[in-house]
Amino acid sequence: MNLWDILYIVLGYFVGAIPTGIIVSKYFKGPDLQNTGSGNIGATNVTRTMGKKFGAITLFGDAGKAFLVVLFARLFFPNTDYTICLAALACLLGNTYSIFLGFSGGKGVSTTFGIYFALAPLVALVAAIIDAAIVYFAKISAIGSLIGMIVLFVGILFSGLHLIYIVFTLIIVAIVFFRHKNNIQELIKSWKS
């Protein structure tokens, strides 16, 4: 790994750290997302507080920046799987622990789908459809997101990609699950009651 690889990985973090939801909210004169609704800056909270149109802009913004980070990594570092994976991971960490927000951030779902639409489009599409279908019928975003991540991992497991991508995907899914820890605790409580 050379200096250019390292610089691109750092760039991936800063691109991921751009707080799309905050920008959308401020530009369209919406509420302070960190003190409204769930307090999250992602597409789900934007949708709840500002409406579906602005939620969609946030979703595509978060997914789009990750997609571009991975797409350019594949173009500029085509034979360096580690650089591609680390740049994508840095982008996700930027989204979930943004330097611009005091190392707080989103839950990483849209960003993860953006990463995998650049890495494994068919797997990402199937996982995203399942995620959306569960959210539509169950009306609980966290359940759709978590099951979508599981489907994504299983898809990558059988995709034929190099082992590094399977390990990388496991790390990505673990981060998203960790960011949903409060949601998971709430779901467990509701199932027990």
List the helices and strands and how they pair.
Elements (H helix, E strand, L loop, with lengths): L2 H15 L2 H8 L15 H8 L1 H25 L4 H16 L12 H11 L1 H18 L2 H17 L5 H17 L1 H12 L1
The level of helicity is over 70%
Oligomer: single chain
Query: How many domains, as an integer?
Result: 1
Helix and strand sequence? HHHHHHHHHH
Work out the radius of gyration. 16 Å
Number of helices: 10
Q: How many angstroms does the end-to-end distance come to?
A: 52 Å
Give the biggest beta sheet. none
The total count of strands amounts to: 0
Uncertain parts: none
Strand content: under 5%
Q: What structural class is derived from the secondary structure elements? A: mainly alpha
Mean pLDDT: 93
Structure explained in plain terms:
- The protein has one domain.
- The chain contains 10 helices and no strands.
- By secondary structure, it is an all-alpha fold.
- It has helices spanning 3-17, 20-27, 43-50, 52-76, 81-96, 109-119, 121-138, 141-157, 163-179, 181-192.
- The radius of gyration is 16 Å and the shape is globular.
- α4 (52-76) runs antiparallel to α5.
